Amino acid sequence: MTNHQLPIYIKSLRLRTLPLSVSGIIVGSGLAYNQMPAENHSFGIGGFWLIFVLAVATTLCLQILSNLANELGDALKGTDADQHGRAAYGLQSGAITQQQIIRMIWFFAILAVLFGTALIYSAFGSLIAVPSLVFFGLGLLALVGAVTYTLGRHSYGYIGLGDLGVFLFFGLLSTMGSFYLLTQTVTVEVLACGTAIGLPCVGVLNLNNIRDMANDRVHGKHTFASLLGPTGARIYHTLLLVVCLLLFALFGHWWTLCIIPLWVWHLWFVWTHDQRLDTQMPILMFTTLLLALLALL
Description:
There is one protein chain. By secondary structure, the protein is mainly α. The protein has helices at residues 6-13, 18-21, 23-33, 48-77, 90-93, 98-124, 130-147, 162-183, 188-211, 213-218, 224-250, 260-272, 280-294. α8 (162-183) runs antiparallel to α9 (188-211). The longest helix has 30 residues, at 48-77. It is globular and about 55 Å long. The relative contact order is 0.13.
């Protein structure tokens, strides 16, 4: 890889999506931190900080893997041939080749496996204990889910199941998984918070799908937003954010309500604009990260 190619590769990693991917980890780990004995707030095997760092590293690799596979899958299907209203990534712009992006996919898949294995060992002290094997299974499911969102003949993102995938992986698995790795328990509160933080993550995908609705329909990509239509998708978007805040408030995370003014403005923009929706995606991503931090206050 030459120096002048590096920015093109970085663009394909879609770095702006990465804060969103760690929001569930932050919520689950933060809730666990307060339940762990003080002596476990360490960087040793079984300690909070080592598990947290490894969980973040694993999640970031899976998110980048998903971004790369998404770019390749849409390119192979011709879905992103029209770049109107969106940024052209390396493959679509012709700056990198399919073989180069496939090598990147393998690289981040291997990294995810290595970080994930270290994470499981750090949490349970064994790679063959029952909880370890369960998490290996969940990790494999996450790996397959990251690759098959748009890549492959039966990609679930093309049959309206992308929202469910994002909710399960970004919301429930990230939050409840990180909490369990640190405490070996699960509570109703962490289930509710995992649900809550997963909803705006789904909102980011829904916003992307509202923007691309006409193009997706032409290329046979049937997203949940395209099934709902422009108005239905906006109602759905509003409900995702409202229910998220209600769930956090129900369990006493009142600081999350500070996000209301930003989300009111965001929803106004989504309801009153058909163009430039791409500008709202980083806003929703970073406010979701902020929401995760507010949930811990």
